[in-house]
Amino acid sequence: MSGKTTIYDIAKALNITAATVSRALNDNPKISQSTRKLVLETANKMNYKQNKLALALRSGKSNNVGVIVPRINTNFFASVIRGIEEGLHPEGYQVIICQTHEDEDREVENVNTLLNAQVDGIFMSISNLPKENNHYIERVIQKNIPLIFFDRKKEMKNVSSVTIDDYLASYQTTQHLIEQGCEKIAYFSGDRSLEIYEDRYRGYEQALLDNNIPINEDYIISIKSNVVEGRDAVEKLLTLENPPNAIFSTSDFAALGAIQKLKERGIKIPEDFCVFGFGNEPFTKFMELSISTIDQSPLEMGKMAAQVFLDKINNKKSESKVVLLPKLLIRQSSTRIIT
Amino acid sequence: MSGKTTIYDIAKALNITAATVSRALNDNPKISQSTRKLVLETANKMNYKQNKLALALRSGKSNNVGVIVPRINTNFFASVIRGIEEGLHPEGYQVIICQTHEDEDREVENVNTLLNAQVDGIFMSISNLPKENNHYIERVIQKNIPLIFFDRKKEMKNVSSVTIDDYLASYQTTQHLIEQGCEKIAYFSGDRSLEIYEDRYRGYEQALLDNNIPINEDYIISIKSNVVEGRDAVEKLLTLENPPNAIFSTSDFAALGAIQKLKERGIKIPEDFCVFGFGNEPFTKFMELSISTIDQSPLEMGKMAAQVFLDKINNKKSESKVVLLPKLLIRQSSTRIIT
DNA sequence: CTGTTAGCGCCTTCAT
DNA sequence: ATGAAGGCGCTAACAG
User: Fold this and answer.
1) B73, A71: Cβ pair inside 8 Å?
2) DSSP string of A249-278?
3) Which of A28, B33, B162, B213 could be bridged to B208 by S-S, CB 3.0 to 4.6 A?
4) Tens of pLDDT, residues B71-113
């Protein structure tokens, strides 16, 4: 009883053939009610469980999908994965996770691994640069395996994507800061060779232009998403002859670092200085001085990505480019004027 | 070229048999260097990739492990999963994630799904109550599939576990609060039918006893892990004739809620009141008033769990009960006396 | 309605 | 050193 029961065991016990057992188990119409009942009962009695591996090999469908992210333990990625899992679980899919640690080689390796594992689809937030070798991605497309980018996407044919409107988010945020009376808005940028960061930058730029505010290159600082870089960036900004009076940081962590440093320098937020983050990390809400930020709806993004996958699988849509609306969460760190 | 290349394709191209190809690919000693080289080259040329599914079916090893958690998008669970993934990736294992949403039926379902998927091991932080039906867990053990509990474990034979010493964490924390001059320590408890919460409670209790402080039942409040429950609990405590002057919350979120409410009531922390959390959620460090808490080393916990699994697979140890040391992070919310 | 046959892709005896 | 054959567990033709 400890070993695994197969349909052959059931067949033997019932003096019928495995095919019949299989049919009974799969609700095949051409089978008598009596044998079906019998099979179901014995299967249950013998504690039979279908071997998905055998099914997968036979059908060519593993019922697994892969998710490739830089790392799993950040609120954003964990939430997207949660969304994907919740969207796919009802359909019988399991989620396999892979981390790249922002390493391009690792990303290629992960794609290969997932391909070898015969996953039915791949969800990915890319780590490598858009200009780099795309060969490993082409292979996914050639094999006709649905590929869905989320957040950090590459613009490619035959590839779906789910993102927020980063340009809009950035534009609206910049506009908001201007409306708060800040015209000297510094900008903390991520790596602009990634589309999302390029889009965000363009939103910032355009909003300034539309308000006849000249771009000040000194205000634009490239940072990594962590507290220390935010602190350092402020340090730099405050040495300028004409320092800014607001920061739009494309990272909540850097925004936090900025706020810490500004406070240490005795600068009052939001009275003297506004700060806006990006990503709606949980801590932004909990601070005594709550941090304004942009919510990317990661849970919905994941669910939407799952839906896009299902639509493709079911031949409803061959390719979708879904753009979700960003949600500006205007909190204390950027609220000077109460409207 | 788009379809999948199999060893048969390679065999055909080389006028040899699939068995030989298989041997060449698997570095089987009894094969000539020349054919091996030839096979490897053609395999590469034809872009051959081993079908793990077929291998899994044949070998009975899927090279997948399953992880079952209440939810993935919390820092703790996401970090443990990350640790597991990192520990197992070098060994060629993939991680499949399942969420229970704290639902017992879902947990049973997840175990069954993973079993059907022929995973080589299961990592689990349980959602159901220890006294409940364990039948689904017994099946895992019977099938001789390594089962590793982490954090929320059940004490069972043949099952490994990786936890922190919750009793010690709790004892030390209580002791610390007493040393800060707080003798009226309220305690926010999780569901004590889970071992970790029972252990934590005992640590609290014992520390009080050892310091000759009587247990005050009014100070012991059962909460769920969120901000609102922390606020409500404080509300209750403050109506007591003899309110406490410290809170030890087994949830960081509840600790945060408590702090919010205490501040609203004009109570000064830590001067008039100390608060200690549990879990080292990222926000605890970032608050203007940083929150003292206990770090559970989730990343190491995951890596250790991975190691325990590997030890079992490799017949080094049949069963391990690993207990990690908790790390008290004494921060502002509980620091009255600077030593 | 049920049995027979075959094959998904791989590896591993057993021969040769 | 290589070939032939069988089987992991399942289902989908094809018969009857």
Assistant:
1) no
2) ES-HHHHHHHHHHHHHTT--TTTT-EEE-S
3) B213
4) 999 999 999 999 999 999 999 999 999 999 999 999 999 999 9
